Amino acid sequence: MLNMRIIYYSFFCSIFLLSSCNEKKELDKYDKNGKLIVYSEEVYFNMLMKNKKLDVTIIDTFCINQKAKAIKDIKKGELIYFGSHSYEKILSKMLSQYGIKYKDHLGHCTRLGSFEPYCYQIEMWKEIDRRYGENFIDSLSQIAKKQFVLENPDVPYIEDGIDLREKYKKESK
């Protein structure tokens, strides 16, 4: 008899827990001024295609969640620099000496409405700047670039109309 009670109790607790997990918090559809709220860049884009004079309130939940994830990762001691460099292997090795991981980041320049596509990356960049200074990444990048150019003398590296191979060869003499 006691075993049946335990089985029934376990069954009802499981049903209760499963049903509470399926409850979704309903997001507000309108702000306090009666304007429609848009939470997704995709939804905003589709609405914008139908109405160029769209007047809505944007709440960028993706960005909010990405910031929270970055802050959580930073608290766990994880720092990531996001960049796109031909000398990524050298820079990655240099950053690893500071406990910073390197990940490729090929971003785009366009933004839709007030949606921010790189909230995780921005939080990481801010934390690196806060810990090591605003010129830290630039300084390491310059050193890594020079090392890359000198190690690859047959690979043209043009920047601002100048072949850096010649510039760095002169500097290293």
Strand content: 5-15%
Q: Can you give the mean pLDDT? A: 83
Helix content: 40-55%
Number of helices, where a helix is a run of at least 4 consecutive DSSP H or I residues: 7
Spell the H/E element sequence: HEHEHEHEHHEEH
Oligomer: single chain
Strand order of the largest sheet: 1-2
Reported for the largest beta sheet, the result is: 2 strands, parallel
Low-confidence stretches: 1-23
Tell the overall outline: elongated
Number of strands: 6
The separation of the N and C termini measures: 91 Å
Q: Give the helix/strand class.
A: mainly alpha
Rg on CA atoms, Å:
26 Å
Show the helix and strand layout.
Blueprint: H1 2-22, E1 37-38, H2 41-50, E2 57-58, H3 61-75, E3 79-83, H4 88-96, E4 100-104, H5 119-132, H6 136-151, E5 158-159, E6 162-163, H7 164-171
Parallel strand pairs: 1-2, 3-4
Antiparallel strand pairs: 5-6
Helix pairs in contact: 3-5, 4-6
Question: Your description of this structure?
Answer:
This protein has seven helices and six strands. The protein is mostly helical and 173 residues long. It has a domain at 25-59. The protein has a two-stranded parallel ribbon. It has a two-stranded parallel sheet with strand order 3-4. A hairpin with a 2-residue loop joins strand 5 (158-159) and strand 6.
Question: What's this entry about, in short?
Answer:
The protein is mainly alpha-helical. The protein is built from seven helices and six strands.
Output the keywords:
two-stranded parallel sheet; mainly alpha; elongated; 7 helices; 10% strand; 6 strands; disordered N terminus
